[in-house]
Write a structure and sequence with these properties.
alpha/beta, Rossmann fold, six-stranded mixed sheet, four-stranded antiparallel sheet, about 25% strand, binds adenosine-5'-triphosphate, binds magnesium ion
Length: about 240
């Protein structure tokens, strides 16, 4: 079997200490392989976002290891970790985190700017992704003037502009109406299908979870069950 794109070993996260100590993750060990789609599901407070932040190298575990393509991340220098994160991952979070005063194009090409790419190449790549998501006509709009669904698509565009290996999405459809949710789901699974992007999705939405090849069910900081789909259901 190939080396997993992401792998955890006995992952522990403890918030606070003493009387306010909270064990958010209680020793999780699992693998995610390139090209998989994985849903992380469970009740509010079960540790889903905490787990996603650790997998995405946005936060450090209290104990245990996250390995990216077989390499334990805790051995790497912080600068190398930010570089890996910027090159390998895309993020779509429920809270949009777009800069309201920048244009859509400026917002979505930020990862390329961070990577040191020149402006004309950035804009070319940015427009390409916006066209894919049917948002090219909004490129020059301020992000603040978009609808909820358009903001979500702009976040997806920003997550894709680096051609990431892994796309993390925390409640990508949480704020959206049914129709817009379906559009966003179609985009995510289309990318998964057409480009082999690994999807890691935290969701309360059972339909969205059911479309993923694997479901990790969390309860009180543990993975209590894991389900596999026999055949991938296409969006
Ligand atoms: N910075 C923090 N300090 C202390 N406790 C925290 C912190 N962040 C999260 N927690 C606690 O850890 C637990 C897991 O939080 P997490 O955000 O991972 O839950 P979740 O499964 O994503 O929930 P939701 O579905 O509501 O988003 C919760 O009980 C939360 O209160
Ligand atoms: Mg959460």
């Amino acid at each position: 079997m190939s080396i997993p794109v992401l792998e955890t070993e006995n992952l522990v996260k403890v918030y606070g200490k003493g009387a306010t100590r909270f064990d958010a993750l209680k020793g999780l060990t699992f693998e995610i392989h390139e090209g998989e789609s994985v849903a992380i599901v469970g009740k509010s407070g079960s540790g889903k976002s905490t787990l996603m932040h650790l997998l995405a190298l946005l936060d450090e575990p209290t104990a245990g290891v996250v390995a990216l393509e077989g390499e334990p991340v805790n051995k790497l220098k912080p600068k190398k970790i930010s570089q890996l994160r910027n090159d390998t991952f895309g993020f779509v979070f429920q809270q949009f985190f777009l800069n309201p005063n920048q244009t859509v194009l400026e917002n979505i090409t930020l990862p390329l700017k961070i990577a040191g790419m020149g402006k004309s190449e950035r804009n070319r790549r940015g427009m390409e992704v916006l066209e894919q998501l049917d948002m090219a006509d909004k490129a020059k709009n301020k992000a603040t003037n978009l609808s909820g669904g358009q903001k979500q698509r702009a976040c997806i565009a920003r997550a894709l502009v680096n051609k990431p290996t892994v796309l993390f999405a925390d409640e990508p459809t949480g704020n959206l109406d049914t129709v817009t949710s379906e559009i966003v789901e179609d985009i995510l699974f289309g990318l998964h299908r057409d480009y082999g992007i690994t999807l890691v999705v935290v969701t309360h939405d059972e339909d969205l979870a059911a479309k993923c090849q694997r479901r990790l069910m969390m309860q009180d900081g543990e993975i209590v069950t894991e389900e596999h789909s026999v055949k991938e259901v296409q969006a």
